[in-house]
Amino acid sequence: MPGVALFALTLVSRRDRHAFPVAIEQVVREPVTAPAPLPVVAKRKPGRPQGSSTQAKADAPLNAEHTRIRALIQRRLARMRPHVTVTYRVLDVHFGNQHAALMARRLRLHLISKLRNDSARYDPSDGPDAGRGPRRMDGERIAPTAIPEHFLKQTTVEDGVETRIYQIEARHATCDQPLNVVVIVKRQLTTGKHAHVSLFSTDRTLAWDVLRDDYQVRFQIECVFRDAKQYWGLEDFMVVKEAAVTNAMNLAFFMVNLSRRLVRERRRSDPNASVLDLKADYRGRAYAEELIKLLPEKPEPGLLQRLMAAVTGLGRIHPLPAEPSPG
Predict the structure, then answer these.
(1) Domain coverage including residue 313
(2) Residue 23 domain-assigned?
(3) In this structure, is residue 24 part of a structural domain?
(4) What is the spatial distance between Cα 248 and Cα 238, in angstroms, rounded to a whole number?
């Protein structure tokens, strides 16, 4: 089905646990073409070709997707860094790889992401070298359900499910540096079935609970998309031209930020205020102003206040707070 793919760059507040979109970019899929036939290459001799050299992983070029995202982040960081200190970049499991880690490092940021469940993790090798060939970087493979107890950070049991959290320093086959990995293993006590999740960061000094909490806060980005779709027409616009689509997307996410600011201010006097209450209030004010223009004379202040309260209260989810009685 035809649709629109977006990449959203947001600032996430640890204190308020809210995400604030700062840049939205449409992702256009390249047209699928038939693969070109492979050229016929003469079989070469075994071994390294003469004059060739090994490219370090840290110097590897970024692919097209990470190059585009890096340029978007670089433009925003240039504007934000005089005012806001950004240290970590949190991405989902799609970006849990070496290219994303390189992209973050070249932006002077640390990456927080999630490894795939089938990713291989290894102990950093501290054994003696064989004396020939490349230096061994990886030790034994780490099994999520057989991590040594001295790496255990927390154990909890709730509703018959045991949760064990480990923090280890491990290597990944594609990464050039060790990673700070937090493994969360859940086991059902009655059946013995288990599942695990592996979060990681390129910051090896980051505490396990902070790393886990930062990745959990990433879900607030999904709430941004939910609000943009539910309240501000992100999935209802009918335009198809590039400029019009860009304007519609950015207007929806701008209204998410604006409405959250207005709701926060309104909750000082109305603790139950919501986005729907806010929309009903402004819509009612517009209707009331048009109605007042049709009256032959301007109503008295008391009647005008009751009229505005009655019209702006239509369509609200939560009733208006009761006004204090005089005296």
Answers:
(1) 271-320
(2) no
(3) no
(4) 9
Q: How far apart (Å, rounded) are the C-alpha atoms in residues 157 and 139?
A: 32
| Beta bridge partner(s), residue 170 | 179
Residue that the structure tokens 């700062």 belong to:
22
Q: Which residue has the higher pLDDT, 117 or 190?
A: 190
Q: Tell me: the pLDDT tens digits for 114-165?
A: 988 777 666 665 555 555 555 555 567 778 888 888 889 999 999 899 999 9
- The candidate with the shortest Cα–Cα distance to 282, out of 256, 261, 306, 262, is 262
Give the tens place of pLDDT for each residue, 54-81. 666 667 788 888 888 899 899 988 888 7
Q: Torsions phi, psi of 16, nearest 5?
A: -85, -15
Q: What is the pTM of this model?
A: 0.78
Helix (H) or strand (E) holding 55: none
Cα dist from 24 to 62, 73, 219, 228, 252, whole Å: 21, 11, 17, 12, 10
Q: Can you state the angle between helices 64-80 and 98-106, rounded to 10 degrees?
A: 30
Selection from 40, 6, 4, 5 nearest residue 24 by Cα: 6
In the DSSP assignment, the letter for residue 57 is G
β strands within the chain, DSSP E = 5-13, 18-27, 88-90, 110-115, 121-124, 138-141, 152-158, 161-172, 179-188, 194-201
Residue 186 lies in a domain: no
Which burial class, exposed, middle or buried, applies to 233 when counting CB atoms under 10 A from its CB (0-12, 13-18, 19+)?
Answer: middle
Q: Is the residue at 287 inside a domain?
A: yes
Question: Sign (positive/negative) of CA torsion 254, 212, 158, 15?
Answer: negative
Q: Check: CB of residue 138 under 8 Å from CB of residue 155.
A: no
Total tally of structural domains belonging to the chain:
1
Dihedral angle computed from the Cα positions of residues 88, 89, 90 and 92, in that order, rounded to the nearest 10 degrees: -150
